[in-house]
Amino acid sequence: xxxxxxxxxxxxxxxxxxxxxxxxxxxxxxxxxxxxxxxxxxxxxxxxxxxxxxxxxxxxxxxxxxxxxxxxxxxxxxxxxxxxxxxxxxxxxxxxxxxxxxxxxxxxxxxxxxxxxxxxxxxxxxxxxxxxxxxxxxxxxxxxxxxxxxxxxxxxxxxxxxxxxxxxxxxxxxxxxxxxxxxxxxxxxxxxxxxxxxxxxxxxxxxxxxxxxxxxxxxxxxxxxxxxxxxxxxxxxxxxxxxxxxxxxxxxxxxxxxxxxxxxxxxxxxxxxxxxxxxxxxxxxxxxxxxxxxxxxxxxxxxxxxxxxxxxxxxxxxxxxxxxxxxxxxxxxxxxxxxxxxxxxxxxxxxxxxxxxxxxxxxxxxxxxxxxxxxxxxxxxxxxxxxxxxxxxxxxxxxxxxxxxxxxxxxxxxxxxxxxxxxxxxxxxxxxxxxxxxxxxxxxxxxxxxxxxxxxxxxxxxxxxxxxxxxxxxxxxxxxxxxxxxxxxxxxxxxx
Length: 496
What we know:
The protein is of the alpha/beta class. It is built from 20 helices and ten strands. The chain folds into two domains: about 1-240, P-loop containing nucleotide triphosphate hydrolases (Rossmann fold, 3-Layer(aba) Sandwich), CATH 3.40.50; about 250-495, Rossmann fold, CATH 3.40.50.
C-alpha cells in the first residue's frame, strides 16, 4: 500500500498561498456550521517519525476557531491508563457535539510504536484491531466525523530530517535513540504500518495517505481533505434535518417467541433467621475477596437493572457493607445531563469504569438505551437497534482487559410493585422514593417487559451474563446477588 505512494509530489509556493487562502476560509466557515449542527469531529494524525505531524497539525488549527478544538498528544500509556481497558483513554477524550478533537498519534500507537517495541504482542493484535474497529464504528454511527491521516516519507528523507534536527541544540531533543533505531529498521516499521493501514481502512473511517516529503503539498492535501469532509457532512446534516426521525419501538416485529421473565419463579423465599446467617457468611467472604482483588489488580463491574422498587438499592447496600469504601464506587444513573447528552451515549459510562483492583457498581446502566430510551422515543429506532451490538462490544472490551462483569435484573411482578409503591407513598420516611413518573411508567409495564426480554436474550454472554434475581422476597434477592458475586469472584481468583 505505502510502497505505491509517489513521494515526489510537490507544490510551488505561489500555488500554495493561493490555495491555502481559499481552504482556510472554507474550513473556518464549515467549522462554524458543523458546530451549529452539533457535529463532533475527530482528526487523527499518524505517520513516520519526522514526517511533519506537528507542523501539519499546527497549520490545520490555524484555520480553526481555537475555542472549538482540543489537541491531544498520545505518548506511552501512563500508570493510570494502563490500569484501564485500552479504549478508555480515548473514550474519555472524545469530543462533545460541535467540537473537534485532534490527535497527534492516537489509538494506533498500539499497532505501530508499541508493536515495534514489543509492548504489543502478536496475540494481542487481532483483539486490538477489533477494539479499534468497534470504537470507530460506534463513534461514527453515533454521529462523529472521523478523519485519519498517515504522513508518509521515505527512509532516506527521514534520516535526513533526523540529522538536521540533531545538528541544532534547540531541536536535538526531538530525536531519540528509539527514533534512530526505527530508521535503522525502517522496512520493518513500514511493513507494520502497511498492515495497520490495510486492516483499519473503512468506509466510515477511511485513511488518507499524505505524501509528506514536500510539506506544502502535504498541507494542501490535508486541508483539502478536511474541507471536503466538512462540506459533505454539512450537506448531509442539512438534508437529514428535513427528514422525520423514526422512533417507534417496533415490538410488533420482535423476533422473540417466548417471554424470559414470565418463566421466572417469583415464589422463592427465605426465612429471616437463615437470611441473617447467610448474609454474615457471604459478607465476610466478600470482604476477604475484595482485598485479594485489589492485590491481584482485578477490576469488577456490577450492573444493576430492574423494575422500579425492584430492590436494587437494598441489594447494593448489602454488597457495599462488606467492601472497603476506598475500593469501590456506586454510580447512580439518571437522565443524562447537558454535558452527557453532548457526547456519545456510552461516554458517560466509559468515564466511570473502574481501574484495576477496584469495583464499579452501576445503579441503572447503559441499558437505558434499549429500554427507557427505546420506549419513550428518546433515540431513533436505528440507535437502539444498533445498541445491542455496541453494548456487547463494550462489555467484551472490559473482559478483554481482565474485568469481571456481572449484570443483575431484579425482577418482581406487577402486583408486588404496586404494593411497594403504595407502601412508599404512605410512609413519610419513604415517600421521597416514589414519583409521579414511577406511577406513569407502570402503565407501560407490558412494553417494558417486551423490551427487557429482548435485552436479556441479545446481551447475555458467557463473559458478561445476565442474572435474573427473583425479587418478590427481598431477603432471597439480596442473598442471591451476594452469592452470585462471591462465586464469580472466587472462580476468578482461582484463575489468577
